[in-house]
Each structure stands twice: as C-alpha cells, then as structure tokens.
Amino acid sequence: MAKRPADPISASAPAARQVPMRDFSRSLPMSLLRAREAVMRQFRPSLREHGLTEQQWRILRALAAIEAAEVTELARTAFLLGPSLSRILRDLEARNLIERRTAKADQRRSMVSISKEGVKLMASVAPSSEAIYAEITRRFGARKLAELQEMLAELERSLAELGASDEASAEE
Fold first, then answer.
1. Which of 12, 93, 117, 136 has a 20 to 30 Å separation from 155 between CA atoms?
2. What is the pLDDT of residues 131-163, one digit of tens each?
3. Residue 149 sits in which domain range?
4. How far apart are CA 35 and CA 29, in angstroms?
C-alpha cells in the first residue's frame, strides 16, 4: 500500500501552534466580528422584511441624522467603499429613498439626502429596530451596554490618536 503524502494543513499545524501569537479566538478583530455578527443577526430579519440590506440601512440611518452629505463623506460615515456606495446609492435612488443633487460649491461633487419616502420607510422600521434594541438591553443590561459603547468609543479614539501620532512621526 502506497503511503499518502501528508495533508499540507495538518502537516503545518504543529508549526502554526508554535507561532508566538494569542489564540485566534482571543484576537480582538475576531472578538469584534463575532460580537457584530451576534448583534446583526438580531436586526437582519427586520431589515429583510422591509427590503433593506445592512448597508442600505446604514446609509439611511446616517442620512437621517443630517440634512445632506457629500458622497465621500457619506462613505466615511457609513464605513463603505466608494464602489459599493455608488451601487447602493443607485439602488436607493431607484426606490426613491434618497435624493441626489450636484453640490453648489463644486459641480463635480454630489450631495445626498434622505427623501420623504426614505423617512417614511425608516419610520416603519423604527418600532422593530427599537424593540430589538430593547431586547438586547434587557439581555445584556443597560449599564453594561452603555459601558460597552463607551469603551468601544474610547478604543476607537485611542487608536485614532495612535494612528495620528504614527503619521506625524513618519512626516518628520
């Protein structure tokens, strides 16, 4: 009987275990991704019921908080890449959920705002969304949820400062 070659994944497993890194399940990016997925799993059925994707909802939520946004600023606010945002805006515009117009100061730039139809849709999603938030709060605890949000904001600020100081050092 011929000997089979070793499976490359299992053959490298002992070496991989010797890499001086924290366990994969304890990595901060993975912990954040798992937590995000657990939260979004609660919201997806409601969004689907209203014909929305997570990204479309993020854009509508961002636009509902402001009068209008320039497209590149909206991409930053909603954490979306430009090409994805363009497609999503096209879909939302086709559904009359947003309005686009040319920026007065720069004709090359586009301003986006939520439409009356978009506000109506958000109003129909809001009760379900708030009920989900209430259930998350009930299960996790209001104090712990507030602390978590503050800690995440603090983490974001400290890493933004770290990135800013690194960029400043690189420029010197």
1. 136
2. 999 999 999 999 999 999 999 999 999 999 877
3. 29-155
4. 10
